[in-house]
Amino acid sequence: MTTPSPAQASHSTPAPHTVIDDATSAIPSLDVDPFALDFFADPYPTHELLRETAPVVYLNKWNVFAVARYAEVYAVLNDPLTFCSSRGAGLSDFAKEKPWRPASIILEADPPAHTRTRAVLSKVLSPAVMKQLRDGFAAAAEAKVDELLAKGSFDAVADLAEAYPLSVFPDAMGLQQEGRENLLPYAGLVFNAFGPPNALREEAIARSAPHQAYVAAQCQRENLAPGGFGACIHARVDSGDITATEAPLLVRSLLSAGLDTTVNGIGAAIYCLARYPEEFARLRADVSLARNAFEEAVRYESPVQTFFRTTTREVEISGRRIGEGEKVLMFLAAANRDPRRWNAPDRYDITRKTSGHVGFGSGIHMCVGQLVARLEGEVLLAALARKVARIEITGPLKRRFNNTLRGLDSLPVTFTPA
Ligand code: OVV
Fold this sequence. Notes:
Blueprint: E1 29-30, H1 37-41, H2 44-53, E2 57-59, E3 64-67, H3 70-77, E4 83-84, H4 113-124, H5 127-151, E5 153-155, H6 157-173, H7 183-193, H8 199-206, H9 209-218, H10 229-238, H11 246-257, H12 260-275, H13 277-285, H14 290-301, E6 306-311, E7 315-317, E8 320-322, E9 327-331, H15 332-335, H16 370-387, E10 388-393, E11 398-400, E12 407-410, E13 412-417
Parallel strand pairs: 1-2, 3-9
Antiparallel strand pairs: 2-3, 4-6, 5-13, 6-9, 7-8, 10-13, 11-12
Helix pairs in contact: 5-6, 5-16, 6-12, 7-8, 10-11, 12-13, 12-14, 12-16, 13-16, 14-16
The chain binds 3-methylbenzoic acid (OVV).
3-methylbenzoic acid is lined by residues 104, 106-107, 190, 252-253, 256-257.
């Protein structure tokens, strides 16, 4: 008997789905698993390998194509009819597998269906609405920072990155007090579910029944307080923009995507300002930099690391041919640090020209809640800049592992008052 040969380190084997002809180049395969815990612990060397291997690579572990350079990620995001969302924004292809929950009617939809639902959420989360929320969000940020200064030492994740969004977003939605402890577990589930059927996804789905039941109930019109985002969505049934069946699903989108994302975005900003005190000093010297300091943290840490698309036809990306019905994994985080696009990409620089980063996506699906996220991030960083002299990391951090979200589970810090 012969000994089975070890798995080949196939850094240049053509993928089985790849058609090679005179006009196109081979697509190299990689054996990396970008949904493994050791990858999450330090994704940056693998991001570099993904970017430097080729404009398009094939990942053997999950049988998907992948793009990690800025230009290709941007191109895929901005061709939504070729790289569709209606077959799912995760690994699962809705044309082949039933989604774990009814599909989102905004994230997991293509034009023309997407256009109408997107218009509704755009208006619910518009600049005019932000103007109404601003003073309350700013007052809550100042109160939170005062409370933590009184404590001195605390966990920057639980006590700030989670506590601040939890103090403003559920009220802005118009949610009841009862059951709010389900919100972060539900969102963690949603973002794990975009990933492959690994333990993170399967265990989250196995525990999901109570979180799903909570969210389903809170999406109903009678459970949403007047004036909140939820009630505003339901009001669009009366104006005929959406049906009574669609309204709860759009509320569900905000409950899915509106809290854990800002938790990890704000967490990223605090973690950056704690690690780079000279940048915190620049922020303190000019509080008007708060909004860009938050935006740069979104670029730098990319709280949403990845999304998938599915090809609707054979297509060429940078001279590489991909067939119809293939999943394409977009590494937003790798694009946000591509040296082809960014000077000193691994530097957190609060005065960087951040525009064009893909931390909120790009194109027709670009984060519809981005103004809420930026409002929370700006007013919180402004409160820190005005009230805190020093942010010191005082203990070992713990990383939180999720198939899509990047962030921390715990970050012990001490604040020194200004
Ligand atoms: C962007 C995003 C993330 C998660 C869920 C949804 C959207 C949704 O529409 O449900």
